[in-house]
Amino acid sequence: MTPTLLPERHFIGKFIQSPINTASTQELWKSFMPLRKQINAISEELFSVIVPTEDTRKSGQLTMHSTVDKWAAVEVDPSYPTPENLDRLIIPAGDYLSFEYVGRASDYGPFIGNIHGNILPQNGFAFDMRPQFEVMGAEYLGHDNPNSRETLYVPVRRIQSDSV
Predict the structure, then answer these.
(1) pLDDT digits (tens, 9 = 90+) for 94-149
(2) DSSP 77-112
(3) How many CB atoms sit inside 10 A of residue 148's CB?
């Protein structure tokens, strides 16, 4: 399992601050989608991003109860101006592991829990307190469709070995 170094990326969208396990994501997307038409995005892909807040980063742990900024966004050129009533997010370059998810949003919890709780530590990685994001492209068929496909990008760092 080898991480990919992703370049810095620029996004325009809307965000709310809430615990990860709060059911606020659908409302965020409902408020963003009508505004999406006024953004000159570089692709048709949609991005669902979670950014750990300062308090969460200081705690050193990301849990289902952690407070994050949840974003609904599209990627833009770095020089693209930020429209009124929307915000800009810049994700710095960094190492990410990618995972494909197929299924309903309601079944996503066990998938992400397995990645954070099992796959990362078993492969010598830990979650790095940077933005984690999902890319929803042409194969994303909606949150209730069991055939809906998206790609998850998890920011990672190598776990230091205690052995000499």
Answers:
(1) 999 999 999 998 898 899 889 999 999 999 999 999 999 999 999 999 889 999 99
(2) -TTPPPPTT-EEEEEPPEEEEEEEEES-GGGHHHHH
(3) 17
Backbone phi and psi for residue 76, each to the nearest 5 degrees, phi listed first: -130, 165
DSSP bridge pairs for 11: 75, 89
Tell me how many helices (H) and strands (E) the chain has: 4, 9
**Residues 128, 154 contacting (CB under 8 angstroms):** no
101-114 burial: b if 16+ Cβ within 10 Å, else e: bebebeeeeeebee
DSSP character at residue 44: S
Residue indicated by tokens 């080898």: 2
The pTM (predicted TM-score) of the whole model is 0.91
Residues 6+ apart with CB under 8 A from 30: none
- Rounded to 5 degrees, what angle do the CA atoms 99, 121, 67 make? 75
Q: What are the respective helix, strand and coil percentages of the chain, to the nearest 5?
A: 20, 40, 40
Give the DSSP letter of residue 161.
P
Query: What domains are there in the chain, each with its CATH number?
Result: 4-158 (3.20.80.10)
